[in-house]
């Protein structure tokens, strides 16, 4: 934090990677967590963390940006929209501690890419195999609606994260906003994005350089409660992503093996 930035209220100091953990991804994670580039989002995420909601009043909120989470050798990258105010912004991990996360982890478990079907806390030991989960925007936005300017301000983090995830070949943007973020990320990495630009749709696909995009509706409550996105629809996209990524079928234990990853 620079000397010209406002003091944070009610947000404890962020933990940083220890020397034993310092990989390029962990260093990037530290940088993301320390970011205060978007004044509107910084103010919102910290106000939510300070004021809380009654059901989580006894909890200490994270109140900061969220780095991605998952398998550093992932072949599939999921891109969410942004942390939820009382989900990731509270627990400190993407899709952790809210209904969207319940839906997402359950589907990842059903398709063999997560070792459990639910996750409520960042320290629960959740392990992903073959999969990495990030977001187009790393701070919780008011009404779950980041602006295009905030997407563009945060975009360089996604570019660098994907650059460090060398095994990723399939990208699953969750929703049209994340689809656009994925296209911009690939363009920033020097890939030729076709014109006209591939349009977002649930199950829609596009090939860009060495990457394959597979779109999915976002597992927001608005989509899952109304049936616009069902578990079967979401799992079908994940199975297609897994097939495109060359990941083998899940074993009976629910674990995946990936050629060359050292996974069983
Ligand atoms: Fe920084 Fe991204 Fe959060 Fe903006 S949204 S403050 S760029 S981490």
The H/E string reads HHEEHHEHEHEEHH
Query: Under the CATH scheme, which class?
Result: Alpha Beta
Under the CATH scheme, the architecture is: 3-Layer(aba) Sandwich
Per the CATH scheme, the topology name is Uracil-DNA Glycosylase, subunit E
Tell me the CATH superfamily. Uracil-DNA glycosylase-like domain
- What fraction, in percent, of the residue positions are helical? 25-40%
Q: Which residues sit in consecutive blocks of at least 5 with pLDDT less than 50?
A: 1-10, 252-264
Mean pLDDT: 90
* Secondary structural class: alpha/beta
Which ligands occur here? iron/sulfur cluster
Number of strands: 6
Report the end-to-end length measured between terminal Cα atoms.
43 Å
Main β-sheet, in a few words? Answer: 6 strands, mixed
Number of helices: 8
Shape: globular
What does the model show?
- Mean pLDDT is 90; it is low at 1-10 and 252-264.
- A 6-stranded mixed beta sheet has the order 1-3-2-4-6-5, sandwiched between helices.
- The protein is globular, with a radius of gyration of 18 Å.
- Helices cover 33% and strands 9% of the residues.
- The protein is an alpha/beta fold.
- It has a single domain (19-244), classed as 3-Layer(aba) Sandwich (Uracil-DNA Glycosylase, subunit E).
- Iron/sulfur cluster (SF4) binds next to helix 2 and helix 5.
């Amino acid at each position: 934090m620079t000397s010209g930035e406002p003091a944070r209220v009610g947000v404890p100091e962020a933990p940083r990677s220890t020397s034993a953990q310092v990989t390029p991804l962990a260093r990037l994670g530290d940088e993301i967590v320390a970011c205060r580039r978007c004044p509107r989002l910084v103010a919102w995420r910290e106000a939510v963390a300070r004021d809380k909601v009654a059901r989580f009043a006894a909890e200490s909120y994270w109140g900061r940006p969220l780095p991605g989470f998952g398998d550093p050798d992932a072949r599939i990258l999921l891109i969410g929209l942004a942390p939820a105010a009382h989900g990731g912004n509270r627990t400190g991990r993407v899709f952790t501690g809210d209904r969207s996360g319940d839906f997402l982890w359950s589907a990842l478990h059903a398709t063999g890419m997560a070792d459990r079907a639910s996750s409520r806390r960042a320290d629960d030991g959740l392990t992903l195999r073959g999969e990495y989960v990030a977001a187009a925007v790393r701070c919780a936005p008011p009404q779950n609606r980041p602006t295009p300017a905030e997407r563009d301000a945060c975009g360089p983090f996604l570019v660098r994260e994907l650059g460090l995830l060398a095994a990723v070949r399939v990208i699953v943007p969750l929703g049209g906003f994340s689809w656009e973020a994925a296209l911009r990320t690939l363009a920033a990495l020097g890939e030729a994005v076709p014109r006209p630009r591939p349009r977002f749709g649930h199950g829609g696909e596009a090939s860009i350089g060495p990457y394959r995009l597979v779109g999915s509706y976002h597992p927001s409550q608005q989509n899952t409660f109304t049936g616009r996105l069902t578990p079967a629809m979401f799992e079908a996209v994940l199975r297609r992503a897994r097939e495109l990524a060359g990941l083998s079928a899940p074993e009976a234990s629910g674990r995946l093996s990936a050629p060359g990853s050292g996974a069983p």
